[in-house]
Design brief:
Blueprint lengths: L4 E4 L3 H12 L4 E4 L5 H6 L4 E3 L5 H7 L3 H7 L6 E4 L5 E5 L9 E3 H9 L7 E2 L4 E6 L5 E5 L4 E5 L1 E4 L7 E11 L6 H8 L3 E6 L2 E7 L5 E8 L3 H5 L1 H4 L2 H11 L6 H9 L5 E7 L13 E3 L2 H4 L8 H19 L4 H30 L6 H7 L6
Parallel strand pairs: 1-2, 1-11, 2-7, 4-13, 11-17
Antiparallel strand pairs: 3-6, 4-5, 8-9, 9-10, 12-15, 12-16, 13-14, 14-15
Bound molecules: flavin-adenine dinucleotide.
Flavin-adenine dinucleotide binds next to helix 1, strand 3, strand 16, helix 11 and helix 12.
Length: 373
């Protein structure tokens, strides 16, 4: 039987919306391209900090805040250095942070386990969405199947835009690796971030005690295709990164780049322009999370904004009921646009500061409210 609402994508925003509709007794189906929950768990890594006024507010409404608190880490420290490894800022932790960290995988599991298994349809990669003559919506999948009769389709499937400027490489260092102590010396129980010379080197502790390494460089998107052979060869890629981008880095950074375990995953970063946040409401369809307002991750709020979208959309759906979904979408989008513009703008500014030649000082001055002009 067709449910009134289809949610496309089982990331944080799609799953949070599913859970919020679940607790409000509104029927929905989530369609996800990943083949299974197991495969989904392996996708992407690192940790996310979940904020009180947004991500945690959504979890509270979803009845998941206590469970979240039991697995979140409240003792993560943040260390910011320049490209030589000189410490520029340390934010210690008193154990009472309002931005606790959780592994990306654990957040997805928390949300996924909170909705009935039958509500998530795996291996359903969406190709397009169509409006039918009777006003209902149908979803077409790449496997050739079509699901029809929805009153509202919510895109929660991430997004791509034309603004492309940066490539990140990510790798994982195993806790049993000989490098574990080096990673621990840098990041301790939290995050170590080194910026400068238009590069980023970051180490994060994950919930299981292992460390996750992120390297960021400001490159044109064409860099990947221009180096197509090298990027497929982990050893050659590490050599290239060390030679061309991290040659002047502290030895401990270079050791971690050279000897970290696991493949380097390429993760090009994209962002929508803030001006895109003003579309006319289209009856029967709306967007949440990155699909609505993809931004670079330099203010660490993407997942919080995404789950807050889910909260505001679910509240409007409950308020207007299934008979008033058009009004619900209109009201939700009015609330979402200014938050999205703020997120995209602040993250773009942050990226400029963090990838400036003198980074991270411009960012620190801005963070401290000091005018650097
Ligand atoms: C390197 C990096 C670091 C980040 N760090 C932080 C951080 O510290 N803090 C923070 O708040 N945010 C961070 N973010 C941003 C955060 O990850 C995103 O904002 C968040 O994941 C958005 O959730 P979402 O559910 O909207 O989209 P996604 O997490 O992208 O989920 C989309 C889902 O849709 C599925 N999907 C995609 N296409 C289709 C299709 N065609 N059909 C069906 N399903 C589909 C995907 O498989 C996925 O499950 C970071 C992002 C990056 C890239």
């Amino acid at each position: 039987m067709t449910t009134p609402i289809a949610i496309l994508g089982a990331g944080p925003s799609g799953l949070a919306l599913g859970r919020l509709l679940e607790v409000s007794n509104i029927d929905y189906t989530i369609f996800e391209r990943d083949e299974s929950a197991v495969l989904a768990a392996g996708r992407g890594g690192g940790t996310l900090d979940v904020h009180t006024g947004s991500g945690q507010a959504a979890l509270q409404e979803a009845g998941l805040l206590e469970q979240f608190k039991s697995i979140a880490r409240y003792d993560a420290t943040n260390t910011l250095t320049d490209s030589t490894g000189k410490i520029c800022l340390e934010m210690g932790d008193d154990g009472e942070q309002d931005r606790p960290e959780i592994d990306r995988k654990d957040l997805r599991d928390l949300l996924l386990n909170s909705v009935p298994a039958a509500k998530v349809r795996w291996a359903k990669k969406v190709q397009c969405v169509q409006k039918e003559n009777d006003g209902s919506m149908s979803v077409h999948f790449t496997d050739g199947t079509i699901e029809s009769g929805f009153q509202l389709v919510v895109g929660a499937d991430g997004a791509w835009s034309n603004v492309r400027s940066m490539v990140s490489f990510l790798a994982a260092a195993d806790p049993h690796s000989q490098l574990h102590s080096s990673a621990a010396a840098l990041a301790g129980k939290g995050n170590y971030m080194s910026f400068g010379a238009r590069r980023q080197f970051a180490v994060q502790m994950l919930g299981d005690g292992s460390y996750y390494l992120t390297l960021g460089m400001h490159l044109p998107e064409s860099w990947i295709s221009e180096n197509a052979t090298i990027v497929k060869d982990p050893t050659a890629l590490r050599q290239l990164l060390l030679r061309d981008y991290f040659d002047a880095s502290p030895q401990v950074h270079k050791d971690l780049i050279q000897h970290s375990d696991g493949d380097l995953r390429l993760w090009p970063l994209y962002a929508l322009p803030a001006e895109a946040m003003a579309w006319q409401t289209v009856p029967g369809v709306t967007l949440i999370g990155d699909a609505a307002h993809l931004s670079t991750p330099f203010v660490g709020e993407g997942v919080n904004c995404a789950m807050y979208d889910s909260l505001q959309l679910s509240q409007q759906i409950v308020k207007h009921g299934l008979g008033g979904l058009g009004h619900a979408v209109e009201e939700y989008e009015k609330l979402m646009f200014p938050r999205a513009i703020d997120l995209i703008t602040r993250s773009a500014t942050s990226a400029e500061y963090l990838f400036a030649p003198d980074a991270p000082w411009g960012w620190i001055k801005s963070f401290a409210g000091i005018d650097s002009a």
